[in-house]
Each structure stands twice: as C-alpha cells, then as structure tokens.
Amino acid sequence: MEGCDGGDGGEAEEGAKKLGSIANNGFAPTRKVKRQRKSFIMSEQQIDNLTVDVEQIIENDPQLTKIVTPTDDWTYWAKWIGNFFLIVGTLLTNLSLPPFNLVFTAIGLTLWAMVAANWNDRSLVVLNVFLLGTVMMSLGQHVKEFFLP
Question: What residues make up the domain containing 110?
C-alpha cells in the first residue's frame, strides 16, 4: 500500500506540484520586473484646471459629501464645553481628588446627554445617561459620607 487509493505514488507528486502552485496564489513563479517612475511637468494652467475639475466632481457627486460641523447651533458649544469638563474630570480622577472629579464629570456628561438628545442619537443618549447615573451614584455616596459620618 503505497498510497491511500492504491496508486503508485505518481499522483501524489502531481498533487504536491498543484499545492505548490496554489501556495503561490495559483500562479507560477515569475521574475520580478522593476517599475520605472515617470515624472512629468504640469504647467500652472493645467494644475488650476485639474483643481477646478476635482472641485466640480466633489460638488456634483452625491456620494462625496463634506462634513461640516455647524458653529451657529448651541450643540457645537455644548459638546466642546462638555469635552472640557470631561477632560478636567478625568484629570481630577487621576489626581485622586473626589468629589471634584465627579462634579466635573457629571457636568460634562449632562451636556453631552443634552447634545445627544438634540441630535436624536439613541446610542449617545444611552451611553451618557448610563454614565451620568453611575457618576451620580458615586457622588451621592460621597455626599452621604460627608454629612453622615
């Protein structure tokens, strides 16, 4: 019994060759060809025309949209102020300064929850309200320990 199917072993060699070619992405080994870089010079007029063409494509293509954050809406300022309070709250947490860290974090989360509600973004609302609840529970624990020793 030389092979599983009772063959003479020649089939196994052919199979190994096929597997070798499959391992090379199904292609036989090829020689490497060096690519030459071609440089070209464009005039200022050609560059301007190309820029105008690209801008027209971007403006007219519905799939290519520009994302612009409006600055005239209150949510723009609320999210940046909320970010500031969250960053300061995180720094105060790293400095082990309770309950100030919780107060700053609660303010930041409240601002972000209001922004998320205005945007009708349910995932942000759930995240910020849940985190605000946990921060408020911790803040309540600190208030309780302060007033009821």
Answer: 74-147
pTM of the model: 0.57
Question: Which residue, chain included where needed, has tokens 């801008």?
Answer: 55
Instruction: Please name the helix (run of DSSP H) or strand (run of DSSP E) that holds residue 31, with its range, or none.
Output: none
Does residue 64 sit within a domain?
Answer: no
> Per the domain annotation, does 140 fall within a domain?
yes
- Measure the CA–CA gap between 130 and 110, rounded to whole angstroms: 11
Q: Which amino acid is at 28?
A: A
Q: What is the pLDDT of residues 50-109, one digit of tens each?
A: 777 777 777 777 666 666 677 889 999 999 999 999 999 999 999 999 999 999 999 999
Give the long-range contacts of residues 113-118, CB within 8 A, separation 24 or more.
Answer: 114/78, 115/75, 115/78, 115/79, 115/82, 118/75
